[in-house]
Specification:
Layout lengths: L7 E9 L6 H9 L6 E5 L3 E6 L11 H6 L2 H17 L11 E7 L4 H12 L12 H5 L3 H10 L5 E5 L4 H15 L4 E8 L5 H9 L25 E2 L1 E9 H6 L6 E10 L9 H14 L9 E3 L6 H14 L7 E3 L2 H4 L6 H10 L1 H4 L1 E2 L23 E2 L5 E8 L3 E8 L4
Parallel strand pairs: 3-7, 4-5, 4-6, 10-11, 10-14
Antiparallel strand pairs: 1-8, 1-9, 2-3, 6-8, 9-15, 12-13, 14-15
Helix pairs in contact: 3-6, 7-13, 10-11
Length: 413
């Protein structure tokens, strides 16, 4: 058992999603299954469904600063300020050198590099026209660094590259650093700017893994027998993590406590998931939380809308949770698309509200359920009023066989 000085709680959430720019708006739209996925026309690629964020980009820094920085940095700065405000904190509420910033990323620098190559094409590829901002824009720690500069934080900052498991990985890092006493507060989450990259769309297209539909809002359909791939989205979600002792001292509102986590590797294939390792990852998180499957009220799935990916995760859940048919299962990507490095943290944030209202938001766009994805208590097309949600298990898996699981508990005992 951890002491209250080592127990880590969530006290603030700031986000930018393809359908919302605040947690309350996000929750409302998820409950009602409102998707704002739209068709984008990407340079060199053409049209495709995608999730783009609309938020007040100059609320916390000037247009000139955004132009000098990156899209991921812009999203990260907005989400970090919003998270602090949501937590009732100022950057100076903690010693600035005792705050850590940990940002999960799937990709970074691709958008900026593609844009800069396109720009110098107009000058005959004369590199003297190449921007001097390129190197600081594309280093992996850029988005975390942009957050520290905006907030005046002098503690450690870095990005965590864990493919689409990166958001969960950043929260795990925050928990570990708080427990080690390396920082007094963690600003942690995930970001994605992937909708600006030709390469990402083209790669998924060449793999046969890019979703398509006449109505872009119906393109992402995990678990449906006719699903045909991933909808690429941008987004961000940042959390404020504090120890339970400090949160109670300042009488903070607590969303929940991170009680279990795990990460492991398939060591099998660069892109194809492996259900047995997913089972092992979920089990390790349960063991660390001192819980069994019957203690979990809701599983937030990673499922992206690819046939093998959905099937492998459903097989893993069915195998491990065979004795827990009362556990609800849902999916958020069906509504917002796949926000890559921000996916796991956005999906967790969207389910936190169930601790208060007991509602489980639906997986939408399921017209004909794939028998391979038929799970007990899978919430489809309409929200369900549960008897109460006290624990959430959040799955987030990624390329190169990286798996991550978080368990968050409502009750602070």
């Amino acid at each position: 058992m951890y002491s209250d000085d080592q127990r880590v709680v969530i006290t603030g959430v700031g986000l930018a999603a393809p359908n919302a720019s605040s947690l309350s708006e996000f929750r409302e739209k998820l409950i009602n299954g409102i998707s704002e996925i739209e068709e984008v026309d990407l340079r060199y690629f053409g049209k495709a469904p995608a999730g783009t964020c609309r938020f007040e980009e100059t609320r916390y820094r000037k247009k000139k600063e955004n132009k000098k920085g990156t899209r991921a940095g812009c999203i990260g700065v907005y989400c970090s300020h919003e998270a602090l405000r949501d937590a009732g904190l100022e950057p100076g509420s903690y010693a600035r050198d005792r705050i850590g910033v940990y940002v999960g990323l799937t990709e970074h620098g691709t958008v900026e590099t593609e844009n800069e190559i396109y720009n110098i094409k107009g000058y005959g590829y004369d590199v003297s026209y190449w921007t001097h901002h390129h190197n600081p824009r594309t280093v992996l720690n850029n988005p975390a660094g942009e957050i520290t500069m905006s907030l005046g934080i002098t503690g450690p900052h870095y990005s965590i590259g864990a493919a689409c498991a990166a958001g969960n990985a950043s929260l795990i890092q925050g928990v570990q650093m708080l427990r080690l006493g390396e920082v007094d507060m963690a600003i942690a989450g995930g970001l994605s700017e992937s909708t600006g990259s030709f390469g990402i769309f083209a790669s998924f297209k060449s793999q046969g893994a890019l979703a398509d539909a006449d109505d872009p809002r119906q393109a992402c359909k995990p678990f449906d027998v006719n699903r045909n791939g991933i909808v690429v989205s941008e987004g961000g979600c940042i959390y404020i993590l504090e120890t339970l002792t400090r949160a109670r001292t300042r009488n903070a509102r607590i969303y929940g406590e991170i009680v279990g986590y795990a990460m492991n590797s398939d060591a099998k294939d660069p892109v194809l998931p492996f259900w047995e390792r997913q089972v092992q990852c979920m089990q390790l998180a349960l063991d660390r939380a001192a819980m069994t499957t019957t203690d979990i009220d809701l599983i937030s799935t990673h499922a992206t809308g690819t046939r093998q990916g959905d099937n492998e995760e459903c097989r893993a859940i069915r195998s491990l949770f065979a004795d827990s048919p009362q556990t609800y299962v849902n999916n958020t990507k069906s509504i917002i698309g796949h926000a890559m490095g921000a996916a796991g943290v956005l999906e967790l944030a969207g389910n936190l509200g169930s601790f208060e209202d007991g509602l489980v938001h639906p997986t939408i766009n399921v017209t004909e359920l794939d028998p391979a994805c038929a799970l007990d208590n899978l919430v489809i097309n309409e929200a369900v009023q549960s008897r109460g949600i006290g624990t959430i298990l959040n799955n987030s898996f990624g390329m190169m066989g990286i798996n991550s699981v978080l368990i968050v508990r409502k009750n602070i005992l």
